[in-house]
Amino acid sequence: xxxxxxxxxxxxxxxxxxxxxxxxxxxxxxxxxxxxxxxxxxxxxxxxxxxxxxxxxxxxxxxxxxxxxxxxxxxxxxxxxxxxxxxxxxxxxxxxxxxxxxxxxxxxxxxxxxxxxxxxxxxxxxxxxxxxxxxxxxxxxxxxxxxxxxxxxxxxxxxxxxxxxxxxxxxxxxxxxxxxxxxxxxxxxxxxxxxxxxxxxxxxxxx
Length: 207
Hints:
This protein is an alpha/beta fold. It is built from six helices and ten strands.
C-alpha cells in the first residue's frame, strides 16, 4: 500500500493466495519466476520469510527455516533493477548495510501507546532515514494474533489493545489481525517509495 501511495502500480507475488490483496496478484513461488519477468518491472521489493531470523524462532514449538535472503539478493541483482529487501531485526548480519525504520519515526501508535515495529531494509540505492528512533512508553506490540500493551508486563489488570487499536497504530484500517501481525506499516514503504520513485525516474531519463 505504501508503494501505491508513493505512485507505483503494484503487483504482488506470494505462494499463498491472498484473497484480500487490493492490487494485481500472482500466486507463485518468487524464486521460480523467470529472469525476464522480474526484469520487466521498474523496481522490486522483496520480503523473504523472516522465520529464520525472528526472535520467535526460540519458542519450544518453533521449526527450522531456511535463510532465503542470499538467494533472493542474487535474483534481484541479476535483474539489474533497483531493489529493496526487508526483514526483521534479527536478520541484520545477513543484510548489507541495512537501514532501520521504526514506528516512532512516523508518529505511529494508538491510545497514547507507541508502535515501534523495527524493520531492516537493504537497498541497491542510497536510502536516507527520517532520523533516529524516539522510543517512549507504553508501547503497542502486534504479534501472535494479538495487539499487546507493554504495561501488562507489570499490571495484568490492564486490558490488551483491540484489533481496531492495531489498525489505527499500523494505519491499516482494512486489515485483519492476521494481516496486521505479518505486515509492516505502509508509512515505511511510502517513505522508501518516494525515494525509489526518484531513482526510477532518474534511470528513465538516463536511458
